[in-house]
Amino acid sequence: MKSGKIMSIIVSLVMCLMAVPMNTAASKTESSSARAMGDVDDDKKIAASDAALVLSEYGRLSMGSEGIFSEDVRTAADVDKDDKITAFDASLILAYYAYNSAGGSKSIEDYVSEFISGEVTTTSTTTTTVSTTTSTTTKKKTTTTSTTTTSTTTRKKKTTTTSTTTTTTTTKKQTTTSTTTTSTTSTTTTTSTTTTSEPTTTSTTSTTTTTTSEPTTTSTTTTYADPYTVAEIKLDKYEMNLEIDGHDIAYVTMLPETAKDKREIWSSSDERVAIVDNEGYVTAIGEGKCIITVKSTANPDVFAEIVVRVTDSHKITDIKLDKYEMELEVGDNDIAYVTMLPETAKDKREIWSSSDESVAIVDNEGYVTAMGEGKCIITVKSTANPDVYEEIVVRVTDSNKITSIELSKTEITITVGGHDIAYVTMYPETAQDKSEIWSSSDESIAIVDSEGYITGIGVGECIITVRSAAYPDVKARIIVEVIE
Question: I need a labelling partner for 130 at 20 to 30 A (CA). Which of 56, 115, 378, 445 fits?
Answer without folding.
Answer: 115
